Every structure is written in C-alpha cells, then in structure tokens.
C-alpha cells in the first residue's frame, strides 16, 4: 500500500463573499503586510469595495504581470526584507507563486537562483513569512501547494520550483465570485490546467487510495464545470473546488509526462502554462488510448465506470471529445510555434516525472509535434 502525505492550509475559507474574511483576518493579528496582486484585480469592483479598509493594513503593494523570474524575486526581497512580516497574494497562479517565493526568500540569505530545483546548489530551510493566498483564477492550485514556480528565461532557460512543506500558504480564501468577468480563453487555459493536475496525479505511480479518490472527485467537478465556465455560478464554484483538489493531489502524488514537457516549453516560450498543458493533453490521450500498461488500463476503466459509465468507445476518446466539444475557448487551435532547436531542447530536458511508464523520446516528440507547430 502506498503511504500518502497530505499537507494543506491551516485555514481555508470557501464560498461566494469569502474574500470579506480578509480584512478581519489581518486586523486580528496586526503586523506589516505586503500585498502581491495583478492589475486586473486592483482595477476591479471587488478591490474597490475593499480598498478603504484594506489599504491602511498594508505596508505596500507589488504588481505581478508575468511569471516571476529569479531577478524579480531578488528585487522584491531587497526592497522589503525586514520591513514586512506577512504576505497576502490576490491573483492568478503567477501572483501566488511570486508571493510564495518572496515570502520564503525574505527569510533566506542567498539569491533565488541558488535555491531553485534543477539548477540551485543550496537547500531551502523551510523558513517563510506567513502567507494568505486568494486565487482569482482556477487552475494552478497554488493556494494549497508547497512549491513556488520561478521561470528563468535569461541564464539557464528553466522553469523550476522552490519547494518545502512549510511553503503551503497558512491561509487560503477561495471566493468563486473572483472568477466572474475572466476572459473565456483564460478560464479555459486555467481549467484545463486543473484537469491535467487531477488526471496526471490520478495516473501517478506514487498515488495512493486517498489521493486517487480526491482526483476522481476533482475530475467529476471539472466535467460539471467545463461547458459552463463563463456563464454559471455553479460552474465557477465547481472549477474552483476542482483546482484546489488538483493542488492537493499534485502535492500528494506528483505529476506526469505532460508537466514534464510543459515546464521545459514554458522556459523557452511565454505561452500560458495552462494552454501548453491542455495542448499536450490531447496527444497524450491518444497515446494513453493505445497503452497496454495494465495499471493504466485498470485506472482508466475505474475512472470511466465512476464518472461516465454509459459512454462507449473508450474513456480517452470520450474525454478528448468532451473537452474539445464543450470548451468555452478553442485552446488547441491557436498557432503556437516552436523552432527545431526548441523542440530538441524540450526533448532533451523533459521527463516522464511520476508517470506509470517511462515515455520514450519518440513518444514525447509525438506529443510535442501534436501540440505545437514546428517551424521550418
């Protein structure tokens, strides 16, 4: 039997209007607090309703407009180290990851790159400032994971994490109203990222019975939400729950070859991470349908029996058709090129992570060529 470890927030609020817990939470423990956010939230109606009571509780605000680089983290640490004792993050996955990285490295002496997985030479200690995470998208599950993703496009051209159990945000507030007004393509990119987390963790060789049960629950929520992401309060609630469960299960069981490739592509091109994962998912489903690996076949049969027992033709084919037929934005149709050199780099650096089988270079090439246009 696989032994699983689940690490989650000390406090998690969920429900429409739950963002109103933020001000009382800050007031109950007064300390200098830094806000990480994005322009779309700061320019919106929810922030306008909070600003008068929230602003006096903050020492400052940092705006995150892209996936944070090691240089971004180092600048924020130099500006705020010793001046703030708590962090609030309100935004998408890039905002939450930036805040998590800052909160940790404000308590570490070396530059960010020294601690990054894949390239660093120093281990994180686990010291971190307390963090309150409030997602405004539903995809990464960063509000409940122990890793902060950093993208280095200048030196090593790598996307890697800072990771420690203590880096899970102390508190999370999940308010589905914060998804309202999100562009359809962003809703789709983020939701398919959540699905990929749930699906890959379900198929992971390190998954246990608890994480697989949570993955199935999350996938069921995704299937409910996916066709109505842009028009239903119930769908927004469901996809936010699915994203949170995806964060829990990826932490418990790890991810697979899709993310093993997506991280390398993301270090080379500034494509949305969820879109990259979604595009790789489609050819992966084709590979999976042809797989004779016994545990994969048993797990896919269990998934189909539990979630769509009346469908015929194979679970992989059903999922591919359901996702493409019901998408609120056709994430697989945009022209996303990779150069031959980028293809070669992605193949060289990518891996199968926690997949039940080791995917060959030829199979990973098939996935990449199925997801991207390779330039002449």
From TrEMBL:
The lineage of its organism: Bacteria, Pseudomonadati, Pseudomonadota, Gammaproteobacteria, Enterobacterales. It comes from Sodalis ligni. The keyword Oxidoreductase applies. Belongs to the iron-containing alcohol dehydrogenase family. Residues 188-309 form the Fe-containing alcohol dehydrogenase-like C-terminal domain. GO terms for molecular function: alcohol dehydrogenase (NAD+) activity; metal ion binding. This is Alcohol dehydrogenase class IV. Residues 11-176 form the Alcohol dehydrogenase iron-type/glycerol dehydrogenase GldA domain. Keywords: Oxidoreductase.
């Amino acid at each position: 039997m696989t032994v699983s470890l689940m690490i989650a927030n000390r406090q998690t609020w969920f429900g429409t209007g739950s963002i109103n817990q933020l001000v009382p939470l800050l007031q109950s423990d007064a300390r200098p607090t830094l806000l990480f956010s994005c322009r779309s939230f700061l320019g919106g109606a929810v922030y306008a309703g909070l600003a008068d009571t929230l602003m006096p509780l903050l020492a400052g605000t940092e705006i995150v407009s892209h996936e944070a680089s090691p240089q971004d983290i180092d600048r924020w640490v130099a500006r705020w180290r010793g001046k703030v004792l708590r962090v609030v993050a309100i935004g998408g996955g890039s905002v939450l990851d930036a805040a998590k990285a800052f909160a940790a490295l404000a308590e570490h002496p070396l530059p960010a790159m020294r601690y990054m997985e894949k390239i660093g030479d120093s281990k994180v200690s686990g010291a971190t400032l307390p963090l309150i995470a409030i997602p405004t998208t539903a995809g990464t599950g960063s509000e409940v994971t122990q890793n902060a993703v950093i993208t280095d496009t200048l030196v090593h051209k790598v996307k890697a994490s800072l990771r420690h159990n203590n880096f899970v945000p102390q508190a999370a507030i999940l308010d589905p109203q914060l998804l309202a007004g999100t562009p359809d393509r962003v809703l789709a990119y983020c939701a398919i990222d959540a699905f990929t987390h749930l699906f890959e963790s379900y198929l992971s060789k390190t998954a246990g019975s608890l994480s697989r049960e949570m993955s199935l629950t999350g996938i069921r929520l995704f299937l409910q939400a996916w066709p109505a992401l842009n028009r239903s309060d119930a769908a927004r609630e469901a996809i936010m729950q699915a994203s949170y469960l995806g964060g829990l299960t990826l932490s418990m069981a790890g991810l697979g070859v899709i993310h093993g490739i997506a991280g390398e592509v993301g270090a080379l091109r500034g494509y949305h991470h969820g879109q990259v994962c979604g595009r790789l998912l489609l050819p992966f489903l084709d590979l999976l349908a042809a797989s004779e690996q016994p545990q994969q076949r048993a797990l896919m049969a269990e998934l189909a029996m539990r979630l769509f027992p009346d469908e015929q033709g194979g679970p992989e084919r059903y999922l591919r058709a359901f996702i493409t037929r019901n998408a609120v934005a056709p994430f697989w149709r945009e022209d996303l090129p990779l150069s031959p050199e980028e293809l070669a780099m992605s193949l060289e650096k990518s891996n199968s992570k926690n997949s039940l089988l080791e995917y060959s270079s030829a199979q990973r090439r098939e996935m990449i060529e199925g997801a991207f246009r390779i330039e002449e």
